[in-house]
Amino acid sequence: MRTVKSLFIAGALFVLCSKDVIAQQKYAQKQVPIQSRWAKDVSPENALREYPRPQLVRSNWTNLNGMWDYAITAKNVSKPSTYEGQIMVPYPLESALSGVQKRLGAEQNLWYKRSFTKPAMKAGERLKINFGAVDYEATVYINGKQVGTHEGGYTEFSFDMTSALKEGQNEIIVKVFDPTDQGVGPHGKQVTSPENIYYTPSSGIWQTVWMEVVPANSIHNLNITPDIDKSVVNITVNSAVKSPVQLTIDGKTIIGSSNTIITVPVKNAKLWSPGNPYLYDLTTKLGNDEVKSYFGMRKISIGKDDKGTDRIMLNNKPYYNLGTLDQGFWPEGLYTAPTDEALAYDIKAIKAMGFNTIRKHIKVEPARWYYHADKLGMLVWQDMVNPNQGLPEGSKQAFEKQSKEILTQLHNYPSITTWVLFNEKWGQYDQERLTKWIKQTDPSRIVNGHSGELLYVNEQLRSPSPNAYVGADITDVHAYPDPMMSVKQEGKAQICGEFGGIGVFIPDHQWLTGSAWGYIQEKPAGLKAKYTIMQQHLQLFEKEGLSGSIYTQPFDVEGEQNGLMTYDREVIKIPFAELRKIHSALNPDANTNVPEVTAQDADLTEPGQAYSVLLQQYIEGKRDKYFLKRLGMMASQAGDKPGVALASTALVSTYKAPLSDQDAAEVAQFAKSSQDAGFKLMLENADQFKRILGERQYTVNMMTMIFKGDMETMIANGASWDAIEAKIKPYGTPAEEILLRAKTVEFFNKQNWGQYVPTAQTYLEKYGKNLPENEKSMFQGAIDQHNGN
After folding, report:
1. At what angle do helices 773-786 and 753-767 cross, to 10 degrees?
2. Per-residue pLDDT tens for 586-637?
3. C-alpha separations of 469 from 403, 451, 493, 550 in Å
4. Which distant-in-sequence residues (6+ apart) come within 8 Å of 488 by Cβ?
C-alpha cells in the first residue's frame, strides 16, 4: 500500500528584401541566459532579407519583415482597442529577438498590424501576401476585409489580397490564436511549461512574410520528381487553368502544358549525394510569369546488398545513414534562427562533425533550411509534427490535413529521403492506414512509420507493441543511452532511430543553470571515450544489417545538455576533426566537402577543481547574480547537492519585485520548497507566474513546495490535521488542494472510512478534475463501498 508521500508524488507527476519603409520604434532585444554569435547582427532593417522560397523564386517581391504593431487580447475580443507596442517579425512572440518576449495564453489572441504602399500593377495582375509559417491559426485582414484563414503552425500559405486593396497606403492585420499544447493541433515540442525534453513555445509569425505581384494566370507551385533509373525528371507546373509552359534546364528548352506531367530526359545525370550534392537549375515560364528553381537527381530505396541483407540504398547502392536528431531551436529566436547564415551554420556544423543525415525532429523548418541541406549535401529524415498526444476531438483531422500540407510543401527537396510518421507513440493512431497513405502520396521516398515504436531505456522496454512497423520500410528502435539493433523484418531496413543523450555541462554556456537533463551524465574529459564506444557498437550492428542510426543530439536545447555542441553553438564538446575520424568508419563521406565552421573546443579541466575555486569565492562573500548562477551549475556538475541548494537559495534571494519574465522563470526553476525565498515571490506574484507556467502547473508547483516545506515534516512528527491546516492556510487554494489530497490518501491507506468518505467526497467535488481517471475511480469506488458504513 502506498504512503501519503508516494501517492501524492504519483498524482502530481501525472497532472504535471523590402521596398517599403515604416516608422520604427527603438528596437532592443530582450535578455536570455545565453545567445548565439549571430544575435548581435539582427536589426529591424535586416531581419531575414533573403528570398524565402528557393524552389519558386520571383524577382518582383517585397519583404514585410521588420517592425509591426502588436497587441494581446482575450480570445473573444473582436479587435484591439489599442496596440501595446512593436514586435519584430518574423521572430516569435516569446523570443528575445522579437523585442517583446511574452507568453501567449490559450484563451488569448495575438494581433499584428502594419501598413504598406500598394505597388505598381498592370491590368489583370494580382497581389499575393505570403507567410512562411504562423503558429497556430492565422486570420488575415486587408483594410478591414478578411482575405483568408490558415490553421497549422508549420506550413506556408498565401492569400490573394487584390480585391481588398486601395491606392496609396494599405493596412495588414493578422490575428493569431495559438493554444500550444492546450489545443487540438500539432505543436511539436512546444509546451506551456517547458522542462526536460519539452521547450518554450513559439507563438505567432515565425517565418518570413512577403508579397509579390503575379499575372492573373500564374504558377502556383512545381512538383519535381527525379527518376534516375529512366534518366528523366518528371515535372508538373500547377496553375489555375491549363496553359503552355516553357522549362529551361542546362540551357535546353522543353515545351509542355501546366497541370500535366512533363517528362524531361536527363542524360548522363550527375547524381546528387552527400559526397557530391549536384543541383540542376530550372527556369519555368507560364505566360508572363517566370520562376527559378532547381532539382537533384537522386533515388532512395530499400534493397538487398550482395549478401541479401535489406539496406537503405542511395542511388541503388547501400548507404549507411549516420545521423543526428536536430530540434531546430535557438536561444534568442526559439523556432526562428537569427540570420540565414545561422540557419545554414547548423547543417554545416553537423556535416563538419562527420554526419551525413539529419533527422529533423517534430518540426518543419523554413524553406531555406532545406535549400541549404540540398546545397551542402545532407540527407534529411523529416518527421511529421505529431498530433496532440491526448488526441482530443479534432486532433486527428488537424494532423492529417497538416501532414498533407507538409508532404506537398517539401516534395521537391532532394535532401529529404525519409518521412517519419510517428515518434514513440506520441498521439499514435491508425498507423497502418497513415503509413500506406504517405507511401501512396509520395512513392519516391521511404517511410519510417514509427520511429521508436519499441523504446528501451537502460535496456528496459518501456513501450511494448504487438504490431510494430506495419506497412513501413523501416524497423526502428530507440535505445537510451546505448544503441541497440532493431528487429529484423523481411523487406525492411533496420535502424536505431535514437540513442545517446549523454549530458555534458559546459560552464557559462547553459540555458538553465540550476538543473540540466540527459539520459546519463558525463564529464567533458570522458565524453569522447563513451561516444567512441557507442559508435564502435554501431559498427558491429552494421555488419549484422543495421542501415542507419540517429544520435541524440547535435546541440544542447534549453534544459537538455546532451548535445555535441552547446545551445549557443559556441563550444564543441569533441573537436570536429576527431568526430569525423570516429564517424568515418560508417560514413564514407565524412571527410568529403567538409564545410569551414568555427567553435571553441571544450575545456577538459576536472569540474570539481573549478567548482572548488568558486565555492571558496562564495565563502569569502561573492554574491552577484551571474556568479551565483555559475556556482549552482558548477555544483551540479561536481555532484555537490548541498552546494546546489546553497547557490539556488542565494540566487533566488537576489530577485526583487517587480520581476521580469526571465527572472520569474528562473525563480520557478529554483524554488523547491515553501521554505525557499522563491516560494514567497511566487505566492505574491501569482498572476505573473500563472501566465508563465500555466495556471495548473503553477498550482502543482505550489502544492509540491507546500508539501515538501511544511507538511512532510509535520506529518512525520505526528501533527494534527488541524495544526497542519492552520499552518498552510495562508497559502490559499494550492494549500487547500494538497491538504485535502494528503488527508484523503492517509484515510484511504489506514482504512479510516468514517473520516475518508466526507474528506474524499469534498476532494473529488472540488479537485477531481485534476486527477487521472484511474485514481479518481479508485477514490470514488471506496466512497461508494463505505458510504453509510
Report:
1. 140
2. 999 999 999 999 999 998 887 788 889 999 999 999 998 888 888 887 887 7
3. 19, 9, 11, 18
4. 475, 494, 545
List the end-to-end C-alpha distance of the chain, in Å, as a whole number.
22
Work out the mean pLDDT of the chain and round it to a whole number.
92
Whole-angstrom Cα distance, residue 456 to residue 137? 36
Residue 256: how many other CB atoms lie within 10 Å: 17
Among the ranges given (129-138, 237-246, 768-777), the one the predictor scored with the smallest mean pLDDT: 768-777
Evaluate whether 80 touches 73 at the Cβ level (below 8 Å): yes
pLDDT by residue (tens digit) across 457-487? 999 998 788 888 999 999 999 999 999 999 9
Nearest to 652, CA basis, from 640, 666, 642: 666
Beta bridge partners of 74: 108
Amino acid identity, residue 128? K
For 64-214, which CATH superfamily applies? Galactose-binding domain-like (2.60.120.260)
Return all residues near 314 (Cβ < 8 A) that are at least 6 apart: 273, 298, 299, 300, 379, 417
Please give the grid coordinates belonging to residue 365.
523548418
CA distance 109 to 130: 21
How many CB atoms neighbour CB 572 within 10 A? 23
Single-letter amino acid code for the residue at 143: N
Which residue has 466512497 as its cell numbers? 783
* Among candidate residues 694, 765, 703, the one with its CA nearest the CA of residue 732: 703
CA angle at 196 for the pair 192 and 198, rounded to the nearest 5°: 40
* pLDDT value at residue 23: 42
Q: In sequence order, which residues have a C-beta less than 8 Å from that of residue 463 and are 6 or more positions away?
A: 424, 425, 452, 453, 454, 455
Residue-wise DSSP of 655-682: --SSPPHHHHHHHHHH--STTSHHHHHH
β-bridge partners, 526: none
Cα distance between residue 703 and residue 718, in whole Å: 20
CATH code given to domain 301-601: 3.20.20.80
Q: What is the largest CA-CA distance in the chain?
A: 92
CATH 3.20.20.80 residue ranges for the chain: 301-601
Q: Left (φ > 0), alpha (ψ -120 to 50) or beta: where does 350 sit?
A: alpha
What cell was used for 472?
513501413
Q: Which residues make up the CATH 2.60.120.260 domain(s) of the chain?
A: 64-214
Residues 46, 708: Cα–Cα separation, whole Å = 50
